[in-house]
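Much of what follows relies on a compact textual record of a protein's fold. Here is one such record, which you should read through line by line:
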Amino acid sequence: MLKEKVISQSAAVFDEVVAFRRHLHSHPELSFQEKETASFIRGILDQWKVEYDYPVGGEGIVARVHGKKPSSRHFALRADMDALPIAEQTNAPYKSQNPGVMHACGHDVHTACLLGAIKILQTNSSEWEGTVTCVFQPAEEKLPGGASLMLKDGLFENQKPTGIFGQHVFPELSAGKVGFFPGSYMASTDELYFTINGKGGHGAKPEQVIDPVLIAAHVIVALQQIPSRRSSPMMPVVLSVGRVIADGATNIIPSKVTMEGTFRTFDEAIRAESHRHIESLVKGIAQSMGGNAEVEIRRGYPVVYNDVSLTHRAIDAAIALLGEENVVALERRTTAEDFAYYTQIMPGCFYRLGTAGENGTHQFGVHHPQFDIEEKAMSTGVALMAWLAMQV
């Protein structure tokens, strides 16, 4: 049976996939700089005689594997390739060799698993019908997102897949398990940039200044009415200010304060309306206190919407492959992903791969300098990616 073949072959390619992952982990590259990563992937595809297009949307690679009757069905698998500006703090023998850069979000795992899935798809090409497009995507971690750039560069222009799958590491779940969420799974994300302008002066003469620090304090507090009073409690909304720079001193009130933050929600109408409220509120408070404000809202990734029908079919397929005890229901998350761009133009399913080890190992969260995975999780990741592409 095909199921047994996929399971046994995922075990057979495991050492090779681990080697791929460790190489990538040792040689991470930041968003829009994935040249060597792309070269490594292309070398493997060339060796396996897999057809591909390069470059697409920067360093993106689009590979294709064909089964029987290549025009009969078409699904896509996506893996991201970029790393983060984080100094790794693990003692792994494959730790980053690039100072200040680390695969702390598992994109090395995603890429290695997709390569393993390609090998299984190739090996079993007579067992499934259609075409599988394998997307190695750059720059997921940085706006405007590599997904949007690949789509602008003609990805899927000639033939749009029936659906697309994305897999992401999940240290909150044990290796061997996977998780799914049908519907609006991950939030939209927008970046907030404010400049509060006042009139600086001596801290002992507050009557002679227009204090932008005080204005900024009022703005930070007032902004919380956007999620708490301007939005329904039934719809998650997050507004956080994470950076405030007031370059004064103990006795110096500065002339300006700069602030940066994030805004996230799951509803595009609320998103647009909240943008208007944010700008009006920040400018209004500054003006009412004698200053003025500059507001920039950079639209980021949209909502990741997991097509309900496709996701339920994927859940059924995952249960058939892994067993019901290894397929769990996820909760909605206010983190964001540029996989969202794919879900705007076709049915998509973004699911999670458990990567935690036994006895509390490998449980540091993504974007943590000590993040690492239980590598046996990749056997599950490889098998499921190939299985979904062949069976859904």
